[in-house]
Write a structure and sequence with these properties.
- The chain has 316 residues and is α/β, with parallel strands linked by helices.
- The protein has two domains: 214 residues, Alpha-Beta Complex (Spore Coat Polysaccharide Biosynthesis Protein SpsA, Chain A); 71 residues.
- The chain contains ten helices and eight strands.
- Helix 2 links the parallel strand 2 and strand 3.
- Helix 6 packs across helix 7 and helix 9 packs antiparallel against helix 10.
- Bound molecules: uridine-5'-diphosphate and magnesium ion.
- Uridine-5'-diphosphate binds next to strand 1 and helix 3.
Length: 316
């Protein structure tokens, strides 16, 4: 018989050997104090440092509440969390980053909001400790995303969130390769809310996201949840086509009435370059969608698991 579990904590881990000991030290006491039946699901996302060894040592220490999924390679934070969701058994699931940027001590805040009947609890960082360009970029992307996708998240960068079992089950039915979990979950939520949580500097180690991968992530967020970029583009195409049609008519009339023109070569260049630029951007945008379609169609597994460390359910 499966034991009923109240709370699952899902934590993706990628090259976090520097923070893991501190994470264990702070996380377990918080959860033990809650007097809930809980489990912690760590997903080692193909770390190349000693993270896997640290995780299995921790599993040896607390096999009753610890489960470790070891990936075969690096599949990315969101796929790691998806694997954690599939393995999680709790009635409520909380995702947390391994780097201690969100204090585990705030977990009870999320649970309290769930007690009030919310099935999705997002979080807002009280005070951000990120570099200024991260701060600025995420504000800009937040605004754009909200317009395009109608997903309301005050702070999309904060992964400390709580979900009900119903949302997790629905997410587990989705087969998308590229996704952004808080946004996906938001779409299935009936009664979402947000709470303010603490935010600290990364405890140790360094951010796994470069500027480039942040841009990629935001493309995922936009194209996975909205067709508006494509639709805007066809609108723009219509305007440009209309404008250039008008230009043709004007030039034709001018030629018939005044005669052929000589000057204005560079104006012509400018116009042509503008149009080529727009066309190239459009092709790139199409590529974004087609690339996603291609990857979905191939239907490769989202991740490959090398091993799972967990206690067998039947006591021997
Ligand atoms: N992470 C992961 N796989 C990756 C990159 C990151 O599992 O390919 C994990 C990482 O270990 C951490 C979380 O995702 O627990 C967030 O990463 P990070 O703190 O580097 O991101 P940031 O806070 O800079 O956005
Ligand atoms: Mg972080």
């Amino acid at each position: 018989m499966t034991q009923l579990i109240d709370l699952s904590i899902v934590i993706p881990v990628y090259n976090e050997q520097a923070v893991l000991p501190a994470l264990f030290e702070r996380l377990y006491p918080v959860l033990d104090a809650l007097a809930l039946r809980y489990e912690i699901v760590f997903i080692n996302d193909g770390s190349r440092d000693r993270s896997a060894a640290l995780l299995s040592a921790q599993f040896e220490q607390r096999p009753d509440v610890t489960r470790v999924i070891l990936f075969n390679g690096n599949f990315g934070q969101h796929r790691a969390i998806l694997a954690g969701f599939e393995y999680s058994r709790g009635q409520r699931v909380i995702t947390l980053d391994a780097d201690l940027q969100n204090p585990p001590e705030d977990i009870p805040l999320l649970l309290a909001a769930m007690e009030q009947g919310h099935d999705y609890v997002g979080s807002i960082r009280r005070q951000r400790h990120d570099s200024w360009w991260r701060h600025w970029a995420s504000r800009a992307m937040n605004g754009l995303r909200e317009k395009l996708t109608h997903i309301k998240m005050t702070d999309q960068g904060c992964m400390m969130r709580a979900y009900s079992r119903r949302i997790i089950d629905t997410i587990n039915q989705c087969n998308e390769l590229h996704t952004f979990i808080p946004a996906l979950a938001y779409q299935f939520a009936q009664n979402p809310t947000e709470v303010v949580v603490g935010h600290e500097e990364r405890f140790a180690g360094e951010s796994k996201y470069s500027l480039y991968s942040l841009i990629r992530l935001n493309f995922d967020l936009m194209t996975a949840f909205s067709l508006v970029p494509l639709q805007l583009f066809s609108l723009l195409g219509m305007l440009v086509a209309g404008g250039s049609g008008l230009l043709v008519v004007l030039l034709l009339l001018r030629r018939l009435i005044i005669g052929p023109e000589v000057g204005g070569v560079f104006t012509l260049f400018a116009l042509v370059f503008l149009l080529i630029g727009i066309a190239l951007f459009g092709i790139g945008l199409l590529g974004e969608y087609i690339g996603r379609i291609y990857q979905e169609v191939r239907g490769r597994p989202r991740y490959v698991i090398a091993a799972v460390l967990e206690q067998s359910e039947e006591p021997v």
